[in-house]
Prior knowledge:
It is a single chain. The protein is 44% helix and 20% strand. With 162 residues, the protein is of the alpha/beta class. A five-stranded mixed beta sheet has the order 2-1-3-4-5, with helices on both faces.
Amino acid sequence: MQSLLPLAAKCGAALKRRKETIAVAESSAGGLIAAALLAVPGASAYFVGGAVVYTKQAREALLGITPDDLEEFRIRPATEGYALLLARTARERMRADWALAETGATGPTGNRYGDAAGHACVALVGAKDAAATIETKSADREANMRAFARAALEMLAKELGV
């Protein structure tokens, strides 16, 4: 996580300066996005909350996203559309200005939906919505978790201009 802290600090400073807030909904990053943002002194000025949405039970309990919601959008986990749904829902439920979301397959094997290890989608919702797919082509679980978290924080940093 140490490698994520300088980027998270820049994002946190920008959010504080702008007087804006952020929520996080992540899956295979396992809480690293939220942890990096929370490690910044003064995080309570901008961090609203976060959820590790690792299972369908968590998705329903923490974000209220039901299987019917997924059918309506014809989305499956580990897609940009699903990452955007997570971000939009987190932003709305936590009443934040911004939300970051991540979903993917960390490894050492792929997920049950056919995505290879090292595949993830990240999304940012706020003044502007963005989503991207990351392919590390690695089966290293810990390295993928850091890479997915870094991609999400880089997306936020870019949008905040830092």
